[in-house]
Amino acid sequence: MAEAAIEQRAQSVFLEPARGEIFDRNGAPLNAPSWTPAVAVFPTLCADQELSENILTQLGIKNPGDHKPYVATCDPEKLENVKNAVGLENFLAVGIIPVNTKMRYGSGSIARHVVGYLADMAENRGVAGIELAADELLTRKKPRRLTAYADGSGERIPWLSFHVVESSSETTGVYLTIDKKIQAVLEATLAGTKRPSAGVVLEVATGDVVAMASTPGFDQNSLADYLQQPDSPFLNRAVQAYTPGSVFKLVTVACALEERLTRPGEVFSCDGKASIGSTTIGCSKAGGHGRISLEEAFAQSCNVTFIELGRRCGARRLLSYAARLGLGKKTELGLPDEQAGCLPDPTSLYLGDLANISIGQGAITVTPLQIAAITATIAAGGIYHEPRLISRWVDEKGHAIPYTEQKEGVRVLSEATAIWLQGAMSLAVQPGRTGAAAFIPVLGCAGKTGSAETGKVGENGEKVLHSWFSGYAPSDQPRYAACIFVEEGGYGGSAAAPAFKELMGAILNER
Ligand SMILES: [Zn+2]
Q: Number of helices (H) and strands (E), helices first, in the chain?
């Protein structure tokens, strides 16, 4: 028979989604697809309707009734039993073929907020995360399919007429900068905070995102179950904007040093509160820090000193440094749900507003990703690397095509300022300082805490605070920068700092 004539009577079903995988930097699929037992059913290639219905009923499969071929998953044990009882040749004679079908998201699916999800499994359309951002590329994959050929009569079909048509290359898909191992460590660390939380880990030398996670999470195979759950499980908190609290002091002191409005070693005086017009802002230490050096003011997070620095900088200059360091705008990461964060208009600010912003309170919001990028910039000696998440696309034939070019780093802080900040961040994790709980023995680390007011008050009248810690390690030759955010987690030093220590300790010791 001529090939064209056979093709006309061929019917096909897909054995996998027509969608490329989403890989980590080493080619491990983050969606962890798995092959599961199923049957391909060809209702019009059936010689015995009664037998066909009988088999499907025993397998617990409901015939959609539109005569189109379809694939249905079934319980493997049930399938084996029915197959043995009925006989494989009788399965095939009624157009039912045992196959394996690919589930897009397996139980080991990781980085779910980054990967995102599909509208539903039947509809091959990404609606969140990389599934949405790279939807057009991902849908170029040609799936593996099973084709059945009808013989001349169109009734009884010899089982030899079924065969599998191979798909695009197994390596077809989008490759991220994520490192699956580091991602797993980050996810375990965040789970340990027992709060809604987020974390970002960047490679200091490149700005590549090696891990990004958010809790609580969700199951990509049963999205509906999570719609009504508390704490918005679909939210990728790593790219949502929150009040920074004292992690913003990195920006304030950077501006003051760069503009020569203070100098290393300058001694300030803190009596426990700062009064600006009608506004009074308390220091972190009741009764005040007394005489305190710039370095200790940073390490002990002295609000009074930083309000003075903010006053010297002025709103326009301070906010221009915030913008230069990447705040108030989205990165080029490509995640659809990334927020820009808010930098207020400097002309609209009163002195009290400026005092609040100097210590990261008031009308300013930032994302954990942005704070991680500032931290990486300091660790890299003042060079800002645009964070990157998607590195390449591998096409249907297996050819790699760069997706986001690695950009040259841009100097945004002088080396002198970056080195001062490195020293101050190293001091901040020493005993008695705010970040002491982050300290990593031997390798060393450096960082800054933040405890951001939320405007809420707890049951015992205490302020409800977002907990931040952002730092890098090892301290001498920084390899990774990480920001940890724990929503309403309390003081930065008590929730986020120990999580950072756990995270960095595990990542560095694994290498
Ligand atoms: Zn103070």
A: 16, 23
Residue pLDDT, tens place only, 282-327: 998 889 999 999 999 999 999 999 999 999 999 999 999 999 999 9
* Rounded distance from Cα 326 to ligand 1 centre (Å): 28
57 Cα to the center of ligand 1, angstroms = 74
d(Cα 281, Cα 226) in Å, to the nearest integer? 41
CA of 290 from ligand 1 middle (Å) equals 7
Fold classification of 3-176 (topology level): Penicillin-binding protein 2a (Domain 2) (3.90.1310)
Q: Which fold has domain 180-262+309-390+403-510?
A: Beta-lactamase (3.40.710)
Question: Ligand 1: distance of its center to the CA of 270 in Å?
Answer: 5
For the chain, domain boundaries: 3-176, 180-262+309-390+403-510
219-254 tens-digit pLDDT: 999 999 999 999 999 999 999 999 999 999 999 999
Measured from the Cβ of residue 134, the count of other Cβ atoms closer than 10 Å reads 21
User: 433 CA distance to ligand 1 centroid (A)?
Assistant: 12
Q: What separation in Å is there between the alpha carbon of 361 and the centre of ligand 1?
A: 16
What spacing in Å lies between the alpha carbon of 146 and ligand 1's midpoint?
71
Centre of ligand 1 to C-alpha 281, Å, is 11
204's tokens: 């200091």
Residue 359, strand partner residues: none
For residue 267, the CA-to-ligand 1 centroid distance in Å is: 12
CA–CA gap between residue 39 and residue 59 (Å, rounded): 9
Q: Evaluate whether 422 touches 448 at the Cβ level (below 8 Å).
A: no
**Helical packing angle, 303-313 and 351-358, nearest 10°:** 120
> What are the two backbone dihedrals, phi and then psi, of residue 56, each rounded to the nearest 5 degrees?
-65, -40
Rounded to the nearest angstrom, the distance between the alpha carbon of 420 and the centre of ligand 1 is: 20
Task: Please tell me the distance between residue 253's alpha carbon and the centre of ligand 1 in angstroms.
Answer: 15
**CA 303–ligand 1 middle distance (angstroms):** 5
As given in the structure block, the two tokens for residue 251 are 């920006």
- Measuring CA to CA, which residue among 426, 453, 454 is closest to residue 438? 426
- Give the Cα-Cα-Cα angle 454, 269, 455 (nearest 5 degrees): 10
CA of 282 to the centre of ligand 1 (A): 8
Pairing of strands 10-14, 21-23: unpaired
Average pLDDT for residues 395-413, to the nearest whole number?
A: 89
Q: How far apart are CA 313 and CA 256, in angstroms?
A: 6
Distance from the CA of 356 to the center of ligand 1, in angstroms?
14
DSSP labels for 419-443? HHHHHHHHHTTSTTSTTGGG--TTT
